[in-house]
Amino acid sequence: MGRKKINWQVPKGEKPTELDEKVLYYQEKGYLVPKRSLIKTPEQIEGIRRSGIVNTGVLDLVAKEIRAGMSTLEIDKLVYEYTRDHGAIPATLGYEGFPKSCCTSVNEVVCHGIPNEIEILEEGDIINVDCTTILDGYYADASRMFIIGETTPEKRKLVEVAKECLEIGMQAARPFGFVGDIGNAVEKHAKKNKFSVVRDLCGHGVGLEFHEDPDVEHFGRKGTGMLLVPGMTFTIEPMINMGTHEVFVDEEDDWTVVTEDELPSAQWEHTFVMTNDGLEILTY
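-> structure tokens emitted (284 positions)
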């Protein structure tokens, strides 16, 4: 339980709904609850879902084309052209100065790798391709890991466990549970497999903006963090390291996040909406 903070407010003149009353109960008890504005309308959820369809198509195309001998810049061109051909915009392009349409993070790069013509994929590499799509003003965000040809058993296990961490985090997220439930489940599974969870970066709310509340950390204690309310949309995107959880940002580009010990990292991500029955994936 956190410090009492007034987030959820029913507009004057409106009769509180059943949802309002339930969230207000948690707020009165001192739990951190979302702002009412974070609860998406059915129309907004449908818009995010449509954006998610384009986002999924982008990653499906990458899955079909990715190969040894390909530059990460070629991946970026695929992402840009597919996204624009489908009436959408790559959200990363120009975002706070980021120069490309996706992030390509190879081996020890945790996230925010910048595609370029010099970086050529080799047999045994593992790579995360992270795409965020804007369609009609709605954002959808997802990433996948790809193994180039045959890799080592250790790297393959890392990729598999990172995906399992995402799936376990999904299962832990329940309506009127807490963000901390997700992180607790993810961290336990990573540690069970002798891997570590990156702490300096996290998942996030998404949908009407690129980054919204809440922060979705992939470690922590059950029953902590923000209350998960039906209608919230957010990502779960655990970054799992083979060695230490410590990372640093490459000073040359001020974007690329690398493991401190330069051992491999893996990440999977989806955008979700919380429903009355649990999570629904919007980036399938």
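The radius of gyration is 19 Å.
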